[in-house]
Each structure stands twice: as structure tokens, then as C-alpha cells.
Design a protein that fits this description.
With 119 residues, the chain is mainly alpha-helical. The chain has helices at 7-24, 27-39, 43-51, 79-88, 102-108, 110-117, and strands at residues 67-71, 93-97.
Length: 119
Amino acid sequence: MLFGEPAALVLMKVVSFWAAVLERASVAERAASAREALAQPDGYVRDAAVAFRPWDFALEEVRCPTSLWYGALDPQAAVRNGVWLAERIPDARLVVRPDTAHLGTLLGHWPEVLAAMTR
């Protein structure tokens, strides 16, 4: 099991998703994406540092549209964290997908996630 789903299924979803993305991208776009991704190899460490220290703003001050996407079976990002955030961010929209975990929430609902971002 991986992210609450059979590992082979998760891998298949990841491969299918990125294959479709890459298929639509030109060689120049792919090269630019790779350069951008590798320009700051310490990105994960920075992300972790931000996540585990106090933020320099109050969640109650957020004024942009905010959608919080969670999978009900996600062991890495518990729904209770999304509830906590939604209670503090004004007008936040919490979306919990049953029967999905971390990556499955994104891959299984990608068109809906993108549509929410354009509202």
C-alpha cells in the first residue's frame, strides 16, 4: 500500500498523469521545466522548514480564494488539519474526497482542482 492505495495503482496514475503532461509539452518547455526544478535542489528542505515553524502571517488575514483538498484516507495530511485551516482562513473551501489518500486526491480529481483555481 502506498498513500492508502495499492502501490501499483498509484504508480500507474502518476505515470499516466505525467505522460499526458509531457506529451502536450514541447521539448523547449520540458527543458525549461527541468531547469526550473533543478535550479533549487533544496526546495524540499525549505518547504519543510516553512511547514514546521511559525508563519509570519495570521491565517485569519488571508484574503485570496482558498481551496483545501484532502483525501479521507491520507496518513500524511490528516483531514483534521484541513478542518483546522478552514476554520481560520476566511471563506476557505474544504474539499474532502472519500476513498482517496494523498496523491490519489490530486490525481483522481485534477480537472476539478484546476476548475476551482479558475473561479
